[in-house]
Every structure is written in structure tokens, then in C-alpha cells.
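Data availability (excerpt). All sequences and predicted C-alpha cell strings are deposited with the supplementary files. A representative entry, tRNA modification GTPase MnmE, is shown inline so that the format can be inspected without opening the archive.
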Amino acid sequence: MKDFADNDTIAAIATPPGEGGIGIVRISGENAGFVADKFFKPVKKGFSVIDFKTHQAVYGKVIDDVGNVIDEALCIAMWAPNSYTKENVVEIQSHGGSLVVHRILELALSHGARMAEPGEFTKRAFLNGRLDLSQAQSVMDIIQARTDASLRMAAGHLQGAFSEEIKSMRHDILEIIAHLEASIDFPEDDIEDVAKQEAEEKICKIKDRIDEILKTFHTGRILREGLMTAIIGKPNVGKSSLLNALLREERAIVTDIPGTTRDSLEEYANIKGVPLRIIDTAGIRETQDKVEQIGVEKSVSYLQRADLILALFDISRPLSTEDEEIINMLEGKKGIILLTKKDLPKEIDVDDLKDKLHGDFKYIYISTLNKEGLKDLEDEIVSRVYSGNSGQAEGCFVSNLRQAEALKAAKKHLEECLNTIKMDMAEDFIVIDVRSAWEKLGEITGDTVDEDIIDQIFSQFCIGK
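C-alpha cell line:
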């Protein structure tokens, strides 16, 4: 399945851009040791990189082509197949200056390596059988995880928890195919009806398992990408105060002057393991300020696209025309209505507000001044995100659209298969649909996926991973 030419040797910087304590240049391929040996010289004389024991750090110096010392560094060789890519891998660990690591990379490229493409190290790990496609995709999810729950899900995928569930279903489907084909090949044994009955029972169980997994997609996608949350309300209703309370830091400017937030602020908050992608929007009101007008337009746009709406109403002030406008915008939507400034005397009829709001809303009283109601808000957010999946391990959640679409397609083929059985059609027709479901599940692990899809997936990775 390998698609890289002649097992060529690749190199890239494996650490983030900028300055740091350590910078790593990674080299992978059959000639990785020979490439590194051209410019890394161990302190121990007469000792070359290709003589290194696997997985042992060796101290030495990086030397350019005219003998100048670039840096002192450690070199670690990881010989095939005991490496990330299952190829020969050499890592040079130098000081983390941007110039230093780029000079080392240039030396590797000048001595026979080529620049790695985005995600090519992980792609080679997949093509060489070290990881399946679901595990490979989880590598970037681990890098990008923003909460413990996100990390647990990504780590579970990397360890193969999700893949094992998919492989188990594919194994069960193969057994169904084998029994059906046996009844086709040996009609004299009169096992046709038994094979169909057993196939129907097993297919129903597999379809139910797919349904249970698909129920986790909402949660899995949020843990992976974050819950896009729009905080909306009229000016000076407490939006920025809420943002600061959720972030547990003074991120947004808070004053009693209306219109302080003229643009949208976007931050990530960790709400009991749920990554909230919070957008603090400009206060919605009529204004002559062109900059603020743009901010209000963006607020309305975010309201339409948000996964979760937090709409704020100040109960210490009567409903205004601005509140009425927001009420109209919320028509038919769902979210959480936050009745702010609970610590002040109530000036609005909350029942009247509820009558005006037509949608699926939860009402929570809060006061960001004394932190009242914030725990109730956090509990409601977590409840909405997990929605019945709290008892399941995050490592088995569906985490991206490609996986979900493959599962839905497999389920559809199984449903068609059940219809075929009910119509008492021949086993050949049943096998066609069952095999199609098996192939769709294989797209998740990469066993039956097209090369173009593989290239597209790994192109989204960073270079060096």
C-alpha cells in the first residue's frame, strides 16, 4: 500500500515555530542514519550514527559542510521497525532557536533527504501498518486537545478503543457473509432458511451497535472542535462579565458604558471538560457608529451559526426595544436564557418574558458579581453536550464527520439487507448489501479507503507530524 517513491528519506522540523528550550529535526527513511551521519558528529571519536544502538541518546555536535559547529545536540536513532513510522528514524535534539533548527534541517536536505509533506510521518506510520486510519487521525486530535475530556477521547482513539469496536463489527459481518455463502455453495444441506434467520438476528444487533455509536457524534464533535457558543444581549447587560467569569480571567473590558464591546471576542473555556468556543458579541442595538454597526451585524451572524446560544436579559431593568429585537431574533431557536444581575431588585416580569420567547430555552438566574448561578449554567452546558452519553468512555465516541458518514452509510446498507431478507430474496442479494456495509466500516479504519481520501486526510496535518 506504500505510495512513497523508493522509500525515500524525509526530514522536517518536529517542534513548533519560534524559540524554545529544545528544537527537534526528525528524519525518516531507509537512509536516515546515513543522512544524519553526514553532519552529526558524536563526541566519542570513530563512532558514527549508523553504529548507534536504537533508542539511546548520544551527545555530539552538528557540523556544517566546512567544519563549523552549528550547535551541540543529542541524536537519537530509532531503527526499523521500532519507530513511529516503522522505518529508520533519527531525531536531532538541539537548542530551540529558529535559526538553529532550520540550519540543521537544511543540512539534512542537502545530504539526501527531502522535505516532508504535511502529515507524512504519520501517513507512513499508517501505510506501514503501525496505525489504522482512525488512530492516525487521532494524532492531530491529541495535539489540538483543549480539555481533559478532549484528550481522553483522542487518546482512546489512538490506543485503538474506537477502532476495535469497528473491527469487531466487521468481523461479525464477515461471519454473516461466510454463513450465507455456505448456504449458496451447498444448497443440498438445506441450511438456507437457518442462514437467513441467523443473518437477520446478527444484522439487527450490528445495526443497533451502529445506532449507539452514532449517538455519540454530537458529543464527540464538540469535544474535538469545541462548542461554538454565542453570548448575545443588548449593551451593558453583562456579556463581557459572563465571558470573564467562564474564562476565570479578565479577558474582556467591563464598564458601565454601553457599547464597550464593538467587535466580537473569541476565546476557549474549559467547562468541566467541555471545550467552549465562546464568542462575546457586540451589544445588539441601533447605533450610528459605523464600527459598532459592523460589530452588531457580526453578532447577528454568530447567532445564526452558533451551536449554543446564551441570551442575556438584565432583570434589574424593564424590557427595552433592544430586548424586544433580540426576542424576535430568538424565534424558534433553542439555547439558555440567562437572567442577569440577580443581586439587584427585579424590574421585569419573567413570566411575561417567557411568554414572548417562542423556542426551546432553559432559564437560569445569574449574578457574575457574586458568582451565583454559574454552576447551574455549567451543569446545563455539560448535560446538553453529553445528552445521554455520560456513561460511555470518550475513547469510543465518533469524533469527526467522515467517520459518522461512513457509519450512516453502513447502517443504510444493513437496513437494505433486512428488507431484502423480509422480501425472501436469494442469499446472493443479501450478501451484496452486507459486503457493502463491511466496506463502509473499513473506510473508518482505512482498510477499504481510496488513496485520494488518505491524501486529503493527511494534508490537514502539520509538517513534522
